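Input.
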Amino acid sequence: MRNILVTGGTVFVSRYVAEYFANLGDKVWVLNRNTKPQPENVTLIEADRRHLGESLKSLYFDAVIDVTAYTEKDVQTLTQALGSFGEYVFISSSAVYPETLRKPFRESDPTGANCIWGDYGRGKLCAENYLLKNLPKAYILRPPYLYGPMQNLYREPFVFDCAEKDRTFILPGTSMNLQFFHVRDLCRFIDILITKKPCRRIYNVGNTESVSIREWVNLCYSATGRKAKTATAPSGHCIRDYFCFYDYDYMLDVSAQTALMPDVTPLDEGLRESYNYYKENKNAIPKKPYTEYIDREFKNLL
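Output.
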């Protein structure tokens, strides 16, 4: 049994991570402000991660899994507040790669500002740079879009809603591809890192292949047992008014991850699992007004 600290623990990725390792039999602590329901079978450390005082100094953790750091200050205050610990795993983002780089992005590529992701990407990059300077043995993971049970963003749930209502789905008039990674596969890979302790410290993580937005929508409809009917939005509309992703083409080289973990969850299987979770938890996901915009602006396509 390992002692594992998970930052957060109440929403999507951090909650899934906490429950995953607790179900493995590890002793899991979660660090949050206790403003939301807690996962089962964990120990709560109720604190603001930027004001930790001495709350962690007396504890030893075999692994710290930092899911909720978004800035340099976040990782600085946590690492300075920790007592003794083993591995540190930081969930960063592929938003640290400038969008102008040649794809697929590789871990050896230069990092920098990404105009699509703005402050979010810059914050993750500053957090990475702090770790590289002050905790060079930390593991840094750069995922694309994460999905799966406990999702709290209106992405695939939006498509599921359209499918259940037998709506024609409005596709953007772009050829962008999307790359995904199941949250369970993220946990599996973290487990490999803290168990095998490979020398490499930075990993892109994700499915080996991207899918077109049309393929993704078809898979989401199929997960509900339905076949998608689609139409293409005319030009002149902001994609984020009616679609759940930015106009951003994703492609990460994940060969280093694949060398350690060759198998990942097939996207169709993962989306069926996501839909089954969503059916039982629809009220847990805040909805965005995509449908209202579509009904107003694209009614001739429906």
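DSSP finds nine helices and 13 strands in the chain.
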